[in-house]
Amino acid sequence: MLKAIFFDIDDTLYDSTTLARMARLNSIRAMIDAGLEERDEEKLYSLLQKVIAKFGSNYGKHYDELLKELGMEWNPKIVAAGVVAYEHTKFGYLKPFPGVVPTLIELRQHYKLGVISNGLAVKQWEKLINLGIHHFFDVVVTSEEVGCEKPEVEIFKLAMEKLGVSARECVMVGDRIETDILGGKASGMKTVWVRRGKYSRVEPKSEEEKPDAVISEVVELPGVLSKLSPQ
Asked: Whole-model pTM?
């Protein structure tokens, strides 16, 4: 029998793609209002995306680097305006996808639930707490704590150890083929691809990346789990 369901967070349990886009756009608009001389929103958004790609999403000074890209001196007022607008927008969009909460309630009656997420531990917990769903999960394992990221099998193995389950008793649910599905399959789990968000057009490149099931909404998950139970 299946005993445990593990979830990714971003674009699996909430709309991370829309949140990031709107928060970054609003931060740019706020920086313009605060005195940023460059007023081309499209140009500024592209530069900000470039900065984020260069330094990573967990870097704490994206707006400082954006000013450098523009050849401007550091301006704490403009940087602060961007940070505040980003945070205010983020919390406005940090809501579970429709159907996620009742689905988690249903799944909790039959399975242990966990999260396996790449990223900083505090940031991942902030997301789960702000989404109002942290109490559903028996374990939350992050790459920061493990020292490796999905698709490395170590992070999946640690999550299974914490729940006291074997790979054949587990399902990994996520939106990214190259991390959630590849890593879950490599660790021996069944996998369910939530095909939505910015990675929805990616196709499996090999048998190792082919999910056991594909859904477009988490609410569809209970209906496919019975087909994934080990024989």
From this structure: 0.92
